[in-house]
């Protein structure tokens, strides 16, 4: 790889991206500690954005598609740009065009496409990045046209999405009852040129119906210097495409003057809507103009004026782009590397960022350590992963025990203040049988009644504000803090409800987190792998590499619980079976219903092992004792040859392609060496 593959912004540059072998990737989902992230998946086809949404694939704005379908559908269901120049139809980045000069620029927190069409006389650039440091989630799209001919160009433009999924429709419904669920879809707020997409009520075949308040939105404008010229929108795809349900060409747009399209009656319910913004442009030779658009999610229609206030400015969006790129730059500054090869230096930053996206970046509040940005490695190639990315400030997501553990092995090198937090966390989740829960759901926090009273009395204040009253807001805040909460939930509540504080929201958060007690949230998931425990040895070695003097305290003064689960490994008499006349090991893990009821009956600390047959105090021991226990338990599961550790719990090690080995009484030497 030579340096010409990077542009002046240190972005990877790929020529003729759409004719290269297909690949998928994603924007990192980093909107900053005080931002709300989106998940955004990309492919090197069409205009790149294959799907995006909030939280998980069950809350899409553009429907999640696995990689093979994304390669097919993105040019048609992703962003589209329709132009008429001197009555001639032209679609930049369309897959049907003959080979043309196209390029993709991939940055750490942005993506840009470029098409240069000399025959038409137009250069088209598209930039994508996420709205950073705001209390709503948004994807910014900046579409720039430059006249590269020696004549003026009169251009009619329609730009946007052929299909938007209204909020309230999940992935299963889209895949299995996509036609039926259209009956619930509706678009609101059309007269304000900021369409709001949600279902009219919860999608369910039952008597109990819930109101839906949150929704997705779209808006677009052209900056006119002294003001933002907000663009009208079409949400009825029939007005753009006519009867062309294949969506390959916008037949109505091609045959009808643009102004006439916006005078036609739009059907805003009972069908999958679109979002196309239109305008006329006059481009002199060498001139350029940009269409700015934002697609995102808010918790209610009433929040849209605030969104418009924040984004209807080209200068502000350009500032947001700088902020978005600065976030990933600052996040990776801890590994800033300077060698004779700038490509290697950039590689160090990017790999560190990739590691953060699975393990998270630790923020320290006294003894509490919170990992921002962590999430399961959801992507289009691993379409089986149920990823989640909290739609709130200080966002965190779910992850598998092994994945999160291995991606935090270097934490203490880059943030020594976390101390032995990772060792304590992951070793606490080891069960008495040597296994561990699969799904790490992140952390929640709790406050005692005394702590709540101590914090709320001086921090909240009375002032003349609209209803609800300050006392009502204070009561609501106390109710929030009386239950397990996350930093993001707390801050979002304060911002959304305009809770009056005597200090800034960030200062109040610091006060709360300095007194709160951290709760590790985990659940069984789908099985017990034989290798998860081994990553803890790397955590211990990393910690002792920084703090060798603390080894005695780490081993003998720690106080660690055991994770308690209702799932147990069955005895051989129950899991050894004959299948088609062949001996096999099936149904190795089973839920103990009595144990499940016992765990559910606990008011607090439900998933920690207790004395007195599960009804007494939480049992705790030292790290050394837990390690000795692991040695004994794993030694007891050696295979008949005394060599490999048996795959006795239904799952192999990290290599999932060997999933059939446990059924064949498989064992592994790698864990024996550990």
Describe the protein in words:
The protein is of the alpha+beta class. The chain has 3 domains: about 5-330, Beta-galactosidase, Chain A, domain 5, CATH 2.70.98; about 345-445 and about 520-674, no CATH class; about 450-515, no CATH class. The protein contains 23 helices and 30 strands. The strands form 8 sheets. Strands 1, 8, 9, 10, 11, 13, 14, 15, 16 and 19 form a 10-stranded antiparallel β-sheet that branches. A hairpin with a 5-residue loop joins β3 and β4. Residues about 460-465 have low confidence and may be disordered.
In short:
The protein has 674 residues and is an alpha+beta fold. Helices cover 29% and strands 24% of the residues. Helix 9 (342-359) packs across helix 10, helix 12 (421-428) runs antiparallel to helix 17 and helix 13 runs antiparallel to helix 16 (505-515).
The biggest beta sheet, please? 10 strands, antiparallel
Helix content: 25-40%
Mean pLDDT: 92
Structural class, by secondary structure, is: alpha+beta
Shape: globular
List keywords for this structure.
24% strand; single chain; alpha+beta; ten-stranded antiparallel sheet; globular; 674 residues; Beta-galactosidase, Chain A, domain 5; five-stranded antiparallel sheet
